[in-house]
Amino acid sequence: MTGWDVLEQAGELARRGEAFALATVVWRQGPSSSQQGSRAIVTASGELSGWIGGACAEPAVLRQARQAISDGVPRLLLLGTREQFGPGVPEGMTVVPIACQSEGALEVYIEPVLPAPHLVVVGHSPMAHTLTSMATALGWRADLVDGPGFSASDVGERSLVVVATQGHGDEEAVEHAVAARPAYLGLVGSARRGAAVLGYLAERGVPEEQLARVRVPAGLDLGRTSHREIAVAILAELVQLRASGALPAGGPASPARPEEAVDPVCGMTVTVRPSALRLEHGGATYYFCGPRCRDEFAADPAANLKRSPDADQERL
């Protein structure tokens, strides 16, 4: 893929509401297979499209990109060794050791792109329409679904669901919603009405732990208000919960982090997989970025372990 192809794919992923990270090479020092301006996309599952470098750089970029998707924080990477740059490494830049065979270096900017929050409002009341419009104005993805047409398939595990059917099939809407286990589920109505709905669903066998996640009444307590103010109260609660970290920021659930080890020779972080280069020594398994480091370690394990005091903490 060319750099422009990568940008087109990034736009398509953003339109589909999928989280990804865009990695761009902003500086290089030869020898390096990557070029300044090279781009790649990394998905939350670790799939890479585009070109960001060879076998030395790619694993480090993949690992850092998935972490950026998880925490939502961009980062500037310097792939090389501190010895190459001495004290000139700018503050805030992350230095990531790459394979000892290469004397090249890369500077890569990783930018996470997270989808907007997904709000599903169930109902057709004026309040439901107002809430949907307000969420859209915030840049959220907001869907308005009439009660009879609502099902669990309309909701994902990171969706925010507000049931505002106002007595017209509340029980059915909440039952469908809890089955999808959304990040937030609120029922618009009085506490008395909410207790009746949840009690009915409990009698129908809906698990208590699912019902306990239903917020009723939905929204901040503003007392007696108009339908527009109720919409403001609900949206304010959602914004407050997201700001506190109680709700997802929009990206997918944190991807499972693969096992890693540190090469005791060069210090590069290596992903532990069946094909990884390894050696057994002293009852422990050590992993290596390439044959050169493995052979150097095999020639004198004691000397390499002494030179790498952190290796014992990273070995598997």
Give a description of the structure:
The protein has eleven helices and 15 strands. With 316 residues, the chain is α/β, with parallel strands linked by helices. The strands form four sheets. Strands 3-2-1-6-4-5 form a six-stranded mixed β-sheet. α4 (126-137) crosses α8 (227-243), α5 packs across α6 and α9 crosses α10. The longest helix is centred in the last third of the chain and has 17 residues, at 227-243. It starts with a helix and ends with a helix. Residues 251-255 and 309-316 have low confidence and may be disordered.
CATH superfamily of the largest domain: NAD(P)-binding Rossmann-like Domain
Strand order of the largest sheet: 3-2-1-6-4-5
Mean pLDDT: 85
Order of helices and strands: HEEEHEHEEEHEEHEHHEHEEEEHHH
Uncertain runs: 251-255, 309-316
Judged by helices, strands and strand pairing, the structural class is: alpha/beta
Task: Give the number of domains.
Answer: 3
Q: How much of the polypeptide forms β-strand, as a percent range?
A: 15-25%
Helical fraction equals: 25-40%
Rg, please? 26 Å
From the coordinates shown, what is the CATH architecture of the largest domain?
A: 3-Layer(aba) Sandwich
Total count of helical runs of at least 4 residues: 11
CATH topology of the largest domain, by name, is Rossmann fold
Q: Any idea what the shape is? A: elongated
For the termini, the CA-CA separation is 36 Å
CATH class category of the largest domain: Alpha Beta
Profile the largest sheet.
6 strands, mixed
Q: Count every beta strand, where a strand is a DSSP E run of 2 or more residues.
A: 15
